[in-house]
Amino acid sequence: MSSRQGRDEETTLLDLFRHPRGLADLTPDQLEALLEARPDLVLIDVRTRREFRAGHIEGALSYPLGSEARLARDAGPSQKVVLVCKTGHRSQAAAAELLRRGFRDVSHLAGGMDAWRRARKPEVRGKATASRP
Description:
It is a single chain. With 133 residues, the chain is of the alpha/beta class. It has helices spanning 3-15, 28-37, 49-54, 68-74, 89-100, 112-118; strands at 23-26, 42-45, 61-62, 81-84, 106-109. A five-stranded parallel beta sheet has the order 1-5-4-2-3. Strand 2 (42-45), helix 3 and strand 3 (61-62) form a beta-alpha-beta unit. Helix 1 packs across helix 5. The termini are far apart.
């Protein structure tokens, strides 16, 4: 493993616990209101496909953590992107990578699907989908 590759892996691990500058936190209520007000936003679930199939927010697209390069190709950096994971850690890591790739309007669900479920917000179950935003 090259030293550069080692640094990239280390940065990704640290990104799980570091809140990136430029990332906005959303509560479940704020996200629900934003989904109604901004039909153009791209809602990305970065959990595993299995977690996604077990329950996700309606309209979310599945791009598991590590798929940021594909997401960057599929969505433009000027689009509003909201990231969701289980607890908020993986979404922070994905946000850090998207912000490094030039995305400017990135938010995440603070507390992830755990917070969404505690707030008793609706979710859907089923097939993992990843289509172009």
